[in-house]
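Researcher: Next sequence.
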Amino acid sequence: MKLYIKQKVFSWAGKFNIADEHGNTRYYAEGQLFSWGKKLHIYNNSGRELAFIRQKLMSWLPRYYVEIDGVTVASVVKELTFFRQSYRVEGLPWQMKGDLWEHNYVMYDHSSNEIMRMRKAWFTWGDSYELEIFNPDNELLCLCVALAVDCAVAQSD
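Model: Next structure:
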């Protein structure tokens, strides 16, 4: 299954859609403009909030909490590395590794099985990502982790 995220410039303060491989809108995300730290709400097509991502303030390395149905299920933490970006997903047995120059990431489980591939499209107005999710049961959680990673990348640029 694939999802496509097409963010407008400054989208963390606005609204953007997340579509499937057929171009159908599956989710939409809306950021909060005037808040302490970055916050992003994820909604389904009928307007029900499914998830919430918030930045931890006063953290040495970028950290984002992922809440689904009001429960914190994971936090995404950028690890201190020199030549490649790496993210730890606390609360889940998942880890992301990526290429600093290409902005491509792969998420693995504890057995090194791929859970998701995340690719950034170049030369677009705003950020565009393709998410390839290998288990449909992980769709919302993978989307939230990908959005948290995108924000951590933007924070470190």
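Model: Helices lie at 139-156. The two ends are 29 Å apart (CA to CA).
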